[in-house]
Amino acid sequence: MGERKWNVSCNPTRDLMDAYLDGELDLVRSLEIEQHLKECTACSRSYEHRRSLITAVKTAPLTYHAPAGLEQEIKKVLHREADADPSAKSRAAERSWNWNAWFYGLAPAAVLGLALLVAVPRLYGPSTDDRLGQEVVAAHVRSLMADHLTDIRNSNHHVVKPWFNGRLDFSPPVRDFSDHGFPLTGGRLEYLSGHSAAAIVYYRAAHPINLFIWPSRSGETGKEKVFTRQGYHLIRWSEGGMTYWVISDLNEHDLKDFVELLSSPQT
User: Is the pTM of this model over 0.70?
Assistant: First the structure.
């Protein structure tokens, strides 16, 4: 089968690709684009290209050094002109001064321009937490819409935890809090923030709770941060080499109680 090419159905995705990359779309439109990217090779390739370009710009160095010896070579040429034409000495001196002014004046301006190019999107665009929060909300809603909360449905943590063996390159902590009103329901695989993640599912009465876990970068730790997005409460933190995101339509107080249980020492 040949590789799929652009067609009319790609137009909405192409028109909204930049807004999607910047995290500016609502949940429904983001889910539509995600679905199209899974089905369309051409759009998926374009998305990956643009995402790589954004990463390259954001990580580019903000200084540029002229090649070694460039200034001296230019001065040598100017001095040769002056030696060949004595009347040109004053012009050579003026050119040399202009070169120094141009070289040392333009370099800071160029650095400032590049800094603004990289910094302005970061200042006014969505933060890392906002973009990741959007991914978490999308994953949560997707699991509810597709009626796919769990790949393994079981309330025994001794069954759910081993299920992830061989499916992830880390072992997520899995605990049951039935005695506290948060029974374990099961788990599934997810893909968030550019890597695989474990989704552990709990309930509080009729409210499903998705707990997303993946390894932290460089073992970083972070205090709890609470968000509200599209009617859902989210809490994220890092500890023990893992990053945690919890999301539910449960009230914030009960969700914080759940997070306290997760952070409490195992008995």
Answer: no
Beta bridge partners of 226: 235
How does pLDDT run across 35-46, given as a tens digit for each residue? Answer: 888 888 888 888
- First-residue to last-residue Cα distance in the chain: 56
The residue to which tokens 């409210």 are assigned: 207
Between vectors from CA 129 to CA 236 and to CA 28, what angle results, nearest 5°? 100
Closest CA to 216 of 152, 259, 175, 172: 172
The whole-angstrom separation of Cα 147 and Cα 229 is 21
Strand order in the sheet with 184-192: 152-153, 184-192, 195-204, 207-215, 242-248, 232-239, 222-229
Contacts of 67 (CB under 8 A, 6+ apart): none
68: left (phi over 0), alpha (psi -120 to 50) or beta: beta
- Give the residue carrying structure tokens 């474990």: 198
**Which residue did the predictor score with more confidence, 242 or 69?**
242
In terms of Cα–Cα distance, which of 166, 164, 110 is closest to 174? 164
- d(CA 118, CA 60) in angstroms, rounded, equals 9
**Residue for token digits 């679905």?**
35
Cα distance between residue 126 and residue 159, in whole Å:
39
Residue at 99: amino acid letter: W
